[in-house]
Design brief:
By secondary structure, the protein is mainly beta. The chain contains one helix and 72 strands. The chain is elongated, with a radius of gyration of 40 Å.
Length: about 725
């Protein structure tokens, strides 16, 4: 029995011993030399050899002379250059193996150490050693082979500036044709960040050099706010933009050194304003319009029913992609730099509507529907406008021409073919032009127009100094100035006015009247009919009038620009550029002023209320009038537009009379579009493509209901453009 126990114990011991040997073999790293420094010096210089798998029983020789080993561990070994040694190879010997470390030169020049051992370009590093001074030529310093600026030098110390783009590598000093190479400098830099825009929660990749491979070793900040580091290598960090991030540099602090990086700019979450088509087959192009998209395609992720679809082209307000088919039916989603937005539903089918032209009209308007999957037989396509069936005049597989029904109302436009139904990207709006009043009370000397909160329209006449009131049902009468030309305050029935050039209502329905002549005044007609003088004896010309939200007054003064008149009566010259006295200016909610620069140019100029500076060519360029929609920088307007207004959505409207159009500038998208394009010169009501106006369209105002009123002087009429 005892013999069996002894055998068992011997077996256990053998297994454990074998296991230990395997563990020792597993833990013992392979011998390798990665670097050594310095590579020169006198006898007694300490040389460090860096690598793996060093043995405490190893010997190191300089040529044939053994060196004293001072310190050794698994990754480094320090020896003293022997006194009897000669220039030549350093050899490492252990376990019967010999590894060549490199060459060592016996000379006075030697790089011993430097501090700091890591940092970015532009940082000063202090290099300690021997033999740096020279009477023949100054010492040279190279970092990873790149010349560095030497700031100062003596025999044992050189101060140098880390050069741009050096990268990680050894520091070398050259003197009198000799060189000495020290340890590797850990070059650190942030080369780029991607994306450069986003917001809190955006994942940002930082590319560079000299980072810590452990996330906790890297402190990253966005304009001073700490960010979470989620991934780290020596050349790349992935971080999460922090809450409350503001525009500013991305920086990293690593091993005591601060690394500056590019600017990160927070942008609002994306918005989807239009997706077209809302249904369609594989191969069809989809356009997503909106705001705050990235101009880099790979920074926009589009999903349809959860299926990612590659983005083909990207602009700040528009993305395009090709439908892959097979996505199924579901929401359109866009994620821009980790900021998501959800759009409308998409239907994966063979029928879809890409565009509708015009997108607004009246009963009888010819409408062209462009898309895919229609039937070439008109009767097989059922088209409805907000539920009312339309007559299909002609059909191809990609185009339908229909007549808007007599019972047209604003709403969804749909095309049905067999069991498939396609929705238009936008609702079709019942919109057009009607005449509110046409008659002799509006003479060719009509000068300005204003609309009160109830929709009553007031038209001034500069020759008679009268104001005509036109009620919402089109009834016109002389409302003010019946007692003749003059300057009399008091009750409306007896008040007298001078030549009227501009009018505007404030938020309380008080009417302000700018009059020119011998006495240049702004008069105020209160809601109770009392006339008073808001500002008397204005210096300079008195032209068109605008009010801001606080009822401060602005009048055009041609070459002098625009004069701001506070409710207190104080005045301030603004917009000191040439402005047109034939175009009504407008003031936005922030107090910025927009005006026409000249009667013979298609230019909108802008005065910034914050900086109190003017931009002459804000929309348009000198001598380059035309009819071009698109980005503000390239958009073109007709010359001599006559009125500017702010609509109920905050966009800038331009009465582009020479193009017979109302143009719209959207502040959010920075783009100019055409709100309404009329048929041309003449007189006709109806849909936009049928309506005609005279060449003498002189003023435009926006009503509380969003309708647009136009003073058509040449037709002695007030016209109303309704948009729904």
């Amino acid at each position: 029995m005892m013999k069996k126990i002894a055998i068992f114990l011997l077996l256990i011991g053998a297994v454990l011993a074998q296991s230990c040997r395997r563990e020792d073999n597993k833990q013992q790293p392979q011998l390798a030399v990665s670097s050594y420094y310095p590579n020169s010096g006198n006898a007694g210089t300490l040389v460090t050899i860096v690598g793996t798998g060093f043995n405490k029983e190893a010997t190191v020789s300089f040529g044939e002379i053994a060196a004293e080993v001072l310190n050794v561990n698994d990754t480094s070994l320090v020896v003293r250059a022997p006194r009897e040694g000669q220039t030549g190879k350093i050899n490492y010997k252990a376990d019967g193996k010999t590894v060549e470390v490199g060459n060592y030169t016996y000379q006075a020049l030697s790089v011993h150490s430097f501090f700091p051992t890591n940092g970015p370009a532009g940082m000063h590093v202090r290099i300690s050693g021997e033999g740096f001074s020279s009477l023949n030529a100054p010492a040279e310093v190279l970092v990873n082979g790149v010349n560095a600026l030497v700031v100062s030098v003596n025999d044992t110390l050189v101060v140098a500036e880390i050069p741009v783009g050096a990268g990680p590598g050894p520091i070398t000093v050259k003197v009198n044709g000799e060189s000495s190479t020290g340890a590797n400098f850990r070059f650190q830099a942030i080369n780029s960040i991607k994306p450069m825009t986003g917001n809190a929660g955006t994942k940002v990749t930082i590319n560079g050099a000299g980072f810590e491979a452990v996330t906790t070793g890297n402190i990253v900040e966005f304009n001073g706010k700490p960010a979470q580091v989620v991934e780290a290598t020596e050349t790349k960090l992935v971080v999460i933009a922090p809450e409350g991030v503001a525009t500013g540099p991305v920086t990293a602090r690593i091993i005591g050194q601060l690394l500056p990086g590019p600017t990160f700019t927070p942008v609002p979450a994306p918005r989807i304003t239009l997706v077209t088509p809302l249904s369609g087959p594989a191969g069809q192009e989809m356009t997503i319009s909106g705001l705050n998209f990235s101009t880099h395609t790979d920074e926009n992720i589009v999903k349809i029913n959860g299926v990612t679809v590659p983005v083909k082209t990207a602009a700040a307000t528009k993305l395009t992609l090709t439908l892959p088919g097979g996505t199924g039916n579901g929401k359109v989603e866009v994620v821009v730099n980790d900021q998501p937005v959800t759009g409308p539903n998409f239907t994966d089918q063979n029928t879809g509507i890409v565009s509708v032209s015009p997108s607004a009209g009246l009963a009888g308007t010819k409408v062209t529907i462009t898309g895919v999957g229609f039937s070439a037989l008109p009767g097989e396509n059922i088209v409805t406008f907000n539920g009312a069936a339309a007559v299909v005049e002609s059909a191809t597989e990609t185009t339908l021409v229909v007549t808007a029904p007599a019972t047209l109302t604003s709403g969804d436009l749909k095309v049905q073919r067999a069991a498939l139904t396609a929705n238009a990207p936008e609702q079709f709006r019942r919109a057009g032009t009607m005449t509110l009043y046409k008659g002799s009370l509006i003479a060719f000397s009509a000068s300005a127009m204003a609309v009160d909160s109830k929709g009553n329209v007031y038209v001034s006449d500069r020759n008679t100094a009268q104001i005509i009131k036109i009620t919402v049902d089109g009834t016109a009468s002389v409302w003010a100035g019946a007692s003749g030309i003059g300057y009399v305050d008091g009750p409306l029935a007896t008040a007298k006015f001078g030549a009227i050039y501009g009018m505007a209502f404030d938020a309380q329905d008080n009417l302000y009247v700018a009059e020119s002549g011998v006495s240049r005044n702004i008069r105020r007609i209160a809601t109770d009919g009392t006339v008073s003088t808001a500002k008397a004896g204005i210096s300079g010309a008195v032209g068109r009038l605008a009010l801001d939200k606080d009822a401060n007054m602005y009048i055009t003064q041609t070459w002098a620009g625009i004069l701001k008149i506070y409710t207190t009566g104080q005045t301030e010259p603004t917009h000191r550029n040439s402005v047109s006295d034939n175009c009504t200016p407008v003031v936005d909610a922030r107090g910025n002023i927009y005006a026409s620069m000249d009667d013979y140019e298609g230019i909108v100029s802008r005065w910034d209320a914050n900086t109190k500076t003017s931009t002459t060519y804000w929309i348009g360029e000198y001598g380059q009038y035309g009819f071009v929609d698109g980005p503000r920088a390239t958009a073109r307007l007709g010359y001599g537009f006559t009125s500017l207004a702010i609509d109920n959505e905050g966009s800038l409207l331009i009465m582009d009379k020479n193009n017979y159009a109302i143009r719209k500038y959207d502040f959010a998208t920075d783009e100019v579009s055409t709100m309404a394009k009329f048929a041309g010169q003449g007189y006709a009501d109806g849909s936009f493509d049928q309506a005609k106006f005279s060449f003498s369209v002189i003023d435009m105002k926006v009503g509380n209901d969003g309708s647009i009123y136009i003073l058509d002087q040449g037709n002695s009429a007030v016209r109303k453009v309704f948009l729904r």
